[in-house]
Write a structure and sequence with these properties.
about 200 residues; mainly alpha; elongated
Amino acid sequence: MEQDNHIHWSANLFSASIQEDDMVRLYKYRFLILITIITGLLMWTYSFISLFFVSDDRLTAIGFTCSIVHALSPLVYRLTKSMTLAAYNMVTAGMIFQFSFSYFTGGFFSPTLLWFAVLPLIVGLLTNRLHATLWTFFSVSAYVLMFILQKEGLVPESAINDLGKTLAQFMIGMGLIGLVGGFTVFFLELAYFYHHKPKN
């Protein structure tokens, strides 16, 4: 009996395919909007940190450009009806800005690289396991690339001042706590929602 329960549990957790009807798509679209708002606040805050506390203007230009592209993610979904495309638009903009911010503010030793860990989670919740796995690979690759750049001496001196460092560190701590807490609540709700959906 215990073995049967174990098989049933693992099959439901890792192998079940949920039918995506209009209700599921609406649920994910609302979550897309929520993620866009929460992560958008972080993106724009980092952009203004770049503007006022980082001496290299290139980072400011990258930050505001990526923030605008990121904010258009719900519109991308409305126009294309592709949640995958909308999710990729969001996390690609986020990764470019995170990588750039780290590059100009400490390279491999910049704590901003921690945001790479959130990207596969966002993609996975909005799409499926395949894309979550793919973005895990992308995130690891970007992290390793920054290490190689640092090791080869290709990362410039940090262009952020002390107050900027403090603000950036504060954003990482509070941002991660807020995102992980919010995603946990959403994941519990999503698990309950999917539990009552018919499975293939």
